[in-house]
Amino acid sequence: MTCQEARLLLTEELAGNRGGSSESHEHLAVCPACAAEAEQVRTIWLRLADVPEPEPRPGMSTRFYAALDAYQQGMREQRSGFWRWWPSRPVWQVAVSMGCLAAGLVTGTLMTGRSAPASSKEIAELHKEMTGMRQMVTLSLLQQQSASERLRGVTWSYRAEPSDMEVLGALLRTVSSDSNVDVRLAAVEALRNFGDSPVARRGLQNALLKQESPLVQIAITDALTELRDKSAAPTLKRLLEVPNLDPNVRRRANEALAAL
What we know:
By secondary structure, this protein is an all-alpha fold. It has 13 helices and no strands. It has a domain of 46 residues. Helices cover 72% and strands 0% of the residues. It is flat, with a radius of gyration of 32 Å.
């Protein structure tokens, strides 16, 4: 038995997790260092046993149950009435708040429009508010730890403007580095809406060579083919040079090169 094993057995014996071990006692008999350490540990345990248990202060039980009753009452009130429908996730709370704000602006515009037509400036401000809300929700969801929440973020990206570079950048980062294959596939499809952007096309090309999933490789290859991006030809040729490339990916890349 080694010194480390003997110390572990001694700790378990003192903690009451197991009875005495003859092997550990034999080791302590022939190992002065472990015997000295064992005696020191036993002394510490005995001193700990002499430490008196702290007594609760007067009134602690009453205060605890009063706080518990107040908490339960608050939870009942929160689940009743209007707050029963209020989302618990902060990102959806922001989305609902912005939606209510947009609805209020639309209602106000319609109400004032009966007496005077809304100015182009007011309409532009409303459009800007809605665009900002969509962008904020999309970016927030794409940063969530849950894959399902990130998928929702990809869905929200369809509502973004094709010129929204922040959403475009977030989608490209998702395609390149997201840990979930389904999220990456969804992001590739969403990037088709940004197909007119050279940044999107270059980003898809860069992401293609970083992929290990054949499904994502095929999805990006199909997207570049659909976009008729002839500049993707060198990237596809580099992909074909990858050792042990999936046969389906190789076939699709050759078809894409022929089409381009």
